[in-house]
Design a protein that fits this description.
Layout lengths: L4 H7 L4 H8 L3 H9 L6 H14 L5 H8 L4 E6 L8 H9 L3 E6 L4 H9 L4 E5 L5 H9 L4 E3 L12 E6 L1 H14 L5 E4 L14 H12 L16 H14 L8 E4 L2 H13 L9 E3 L16 E3 L2 H16 L7 E3 L2 E3 L5
Parallel strand pairs: 1-2, 1-3, 3-4, 4-5, 5-10, 6-7, 7-8
Antiparallel strand pairs: 9-11
Helix pairs in contact: 2-3, 2-4, 3-4, 6-13, 7-8, 9-10
Length: 341
């Protein structure tokens, strides 16, 4: 039986040298193109990419990692895996040769040790579960860490930088907006698995809530701040206590939820309790995810530029993995008014 050229190509392992030969360039140029590490003329770049496609070349990531001492892996650590707007940052990192692993956070030292053992080149920490010492442990092992910072920490390693919307402003604007609409009793529900001590706590959201409530001349009540956030059922139990168990005079008429996912879960729960939104209860979320405009009633929420966030995350992570420490960034936020408030 006569083998075709294509069968012969697929039978053997295609190497970087094979790509270079077909493209008419040196093996080094192939590496520059695939790693996007140095300038290559558009003509040569096109020739290399065409040869890669024709030969079906697959770079050996493990071998490259041994040589460069890089895994080409970045971890996005989240308390929930529903942050669809992170896709933009993932795509930009992919173009630079990095693969993103989405990791659902777990409390305790074993999770931090897993991040260390997997030898990620960088970590985007979008979780509130971990202490200052645990974050510093990652930085001490030379892993670049970008922190989605929404509460106060102790003395963070200077190699840890922040990229996040200004949740202080987000909560503050939400309180002022609801106060302007005539609400006098406003409840604060932090996100799922969010560590908070309630009033007098050390996180941005509660500090902003306290300040804005005082600026609006509203009374602060311990029972209107949820501190049981370990599960969705625990949060719903707190909301039940606020809406059903307390005296009618002290029941909230508005709720600020820590994110849209939480707000939409509470929207369904409030309806199950026989209350109407916004007639009986106004509701405000955060992050303006695609679900905010898809539910009924539409969710009033806090927005920030997802495009700018993705671009900054990819840019800052790449800089840090190349040895440069960028400045921390807090993004501006705005209120998007819909029917829920």
């Amino acid at each position: 039986m006569v083998q075709t050229d294509m069968e012969e190509k697929t039978r053997k392992t295609v190497t970087r040298n094979d790509v270079a030969k077909l493209a008419g360039v040196s093996p080094a140029v192939v590496s520059y193109v695939l790693n996007n590490s140095k300038y290559v003329s558009e003509e040569r770049r096109t020739a290399v990419l065409r040869a890669v496609e024709e030969l079906g070349y697959q770079p050996n990531i493990m071998a490259r990692g041994l040589k460069t001492k890089k895994s080409m892996l970045v971890a996005f650590v989240c308390d929930n895996l529903r942050n669809d707007w992170l896709e933009g940052a993932e795509e930009l990192l992919f173009r630079n040769g990095y693969y993103v692993s989405h990791c659902y956070s777990k409390p305790g030292p074993d999770f931090i040790n897993m991040l260390l053992m997997r030898q990620f080149d960088g970590v985007f920490m979008m979780s509130n579960l971990f202490s200052t010492d645990q974050l510093n442990q990652l930085a001490a092992h030379g892993i670049p860490v970008i922190l989605y910072k929404t509460r106060e920490y102790g003395d963070l390693d200077p190699r840890i930088v922040t990229l996040a919307p200004s949740y202080f402003d987000a909560v503050s604007k939400s309180v002022h907006y609801l106060a302007m609409k005539g609400h006098r009793k406003i409840a604060m529900i932090p996100p799922l698995r969010y560590k908070t001590k309630g009033l007098g706590g050390d996180d941005f959201r509660i500090k902003a809530y306290e300040k804005a409530m005082q600026e609006s001349g509203l009374t602060l009540r311990e029972e209107l701040v949820c501190t049981r956030t370990e599960t969705m059922d625990a949060i719903k139990a707190s909301v039940f206590d606020m809406l059903v168990c307390g005296s009618k005079e002290n029941r909230p008429t508005a709720i600020i939820a820590g994110d849209d996912y939480l707000a939409i879960n509470l929207m369904h729960y409030i309806k199950q309790l026989g209350l109407s939104i916004p007639e009986d209860m106004a509701l405000v979320g955060a992050d303006n995810t695609f679900l905010a405009s898809a539910v009924t009633p539409g969710l009033t929420t806090v927005d920030f530029s997802k495009e700018r966030f993705s671009a900054k995350l990819a840019e800052m992570m790449t800089q840090m993995m190349e040895g440069t420490i960028p400045e921390s960034v807090f993004l501006d936020v705005s209120i998007v008014v819909r029917e829920s408030a």
